[in-house]
Amino acid sequence: MSGPATRPRARRPARHADDSRIGCGIDIVDLARFRRSVKRGGRAFLSRIYTDAELRYARSHHDAIPHLAARFAAKEAVMKAVSQIRPGPMPAFKQIEIINDALGRPRAVIGPRGIPDVHISLSHDQRAAVASAFVVAALRTRARASSRRRSR
Ligand SMILES: CC(C)(COP(=O)(O)OP(=O)(O)OC[C@H]1O[C@@H](n2cnc3c(N)ncnc32)[C@H](O)[C@@H]1OP(=O)(O)O)[C@@H](O)C(=O)NCCC(=O)NCCS
Questions:
Q1: pLDDT in tens, 6-19
Q2: Is 73 in the pocket of ligand 1 (CB under 6 A)?
Q3: What is the pLDDT of residues 50-65, one digit of tens each?
Q4: Rounded to an integer, what distance in angstroms lies between the CA atom of residue 108 and that of residue 81?
Q5: 107 in ligand 1 pocket by Cβ < 6 Å?
Q6: What's the predicted TM-score (pTM) here?
Q7: Rounded to an integer, what distance in angstroms lies between the CA atom of residue 22 and that of residue 105?
């Protein structure tokens, strides 16, 4: 007698009811270790990871390290989130820029792959910095359908 089919289904990325896909990512950075890495890596390390605007922002605080570490965590969190919706080559660290608005709220700007909608949150204390990221991407099928409608 044969029972119900037991073959596991291929996993799909998490999907919202409104037909979009969501990627999420999180990362934590130990500040003492990160401080040592910055000391060891010096300018070369900083300029490989951060944009000028990010360095300016971090250096405007009495201790730049927690802000740099939070941005490092945010970039890693964004990479994780992006890879959930779009496997393949990741943007480089410097292609993910974390900027703050006039209220201090951070957001990530990603180029050149045109990731549409990224939400991040940062936190840091004397020991660690953490960041989380959510990326929302419209499904290709939906984009294709609307482009077909436009071309009619
Ligand atoms: C904005 C706020 C939530 C930051 O929290 P915090 O515990 O001081 O600091 P954290 O280390 O957790 O977070 C710092 C990060 O929050 C982010 N942030 C700052 N303002 C923000 C805002 N308005 N919205 C979202 N995120 C914000 C920034 O990314 C910041 O890091 P950065 O400067 O390196 O970019 C806090 O200062 C605040 O205004 N809280 C409102 C409630 C309040 O007044 N509580 C005090 C009485 S209990």
A1: 555 555 555 544 45
A2: no
A3: 999 999 999 999 999 9
A4: 12
A5: no
A6: 0.81
A7: 21
